[in-house]
Amino acid sequence: MARGRAPGLKRAFGFEKLADFDAALWKRLREEAAQPAPHGAKLALYASDGDAGALNATRRNLAAAGVERWVRIEHCDVLERAAPAEAGVLVANPPYGERTSSAEALARFYPKLGAVLKKNFAGWRCHLVTADLRLPKLVRLKPARRVPLYNGALECRLYEFDIVAGSNRGPMQRRSAT
Predict the structure, then answer these.
(1) How many CA atoms within 13 Å lie on the side-chain side of 121?
(2) What is the pLDDT of residues 68-109, one digit of tens each?
(3) pLDDT tens sequence for the chain (178 residues)
(4) How far is CA 132 from each of CA 45, 109, 112, 118, 163, rounded to the nearest angstrom?
(5) Cβ atoms of 43 and 2 closer than 8 Å
(6) What residues pair up with 71 in beta bridges, in sequence order?
(7) Which of 62, 134, 46, 38 is nearest to 94 (CA)?
(8) How many beta carbons lie within 10 A of that of residue 139, not counting itself?
């Protein structure tokens, strides 16, 4: 969308096999959608993961979508990752205990993740997908938005966090001595 490209131009759809499918109309719509659309500012996309297998899958998926030339892929640990730009949008699927990591390991990992986001990604909007509903509390960030979704049959949440430098809390109220 950001590149001004219509999604799905190179794929076939099931509705094309329907008895009343209008192939001529569909061809005209595809041709119109294939015309280059103007797009705004230069787009910078980055993908990173600490797992080489995940990065290989990312490369294959980007190539299949025809967008690999626009995404810079880096092998790195999220806890050591610097923000690649001053501001942006981060989307991550941190571990949440379904395939790896125990609840105790996650309780140690999430605060570190929150600290890295606050230190390295101030000015960014960060979206984290998880089935672990403790995540907002453990990363010590207040979600701006919570969206229920499913990863297969597993109920998850997509949490959105607006990352600010320092504390997002207002000034503390002075307590009176009694």
Answers:
(1) 23
(2) 888 999 999 889 999 998 989 999 988 876 656 688 888 899
(3) 666 778 788 789 999 999 999 999 999 999 988 887 666 557 788 999 988 999 999 999 999 888 888 899 999 988 999 999 898 999 998 887 665 668 888 889 999 999 999 999 999 999 999 998 998 999 999 999 999 999 889 999 999 999 987 665 555 544 445 4
(4) 27, 12, 16, 20, 20
(5) yes
(6) 45
(7) 134
(8) 25
Residues 6+ apart with CB under 8 A from 91: 126, 127, 129
Give the position of tokens 């797992």: 51
Report CA 153 to chain centroid distance, whole Å.
Answer: 20
| The CATH number, out of the four listed (3.20.140.10, 3.40.50.970, 3.40.1280.10, 3.40.50.150), of the domain defined by the range 85-167 | 3.40.50.150
Number of other CB atoms surrounding residue 104 within 10 Å: 9
Amino acid occupying residue 102: S
**Cα gap 61→161, rounded to integer Å:** 27
Domain boundaries, the chain: 42-76, 85-167
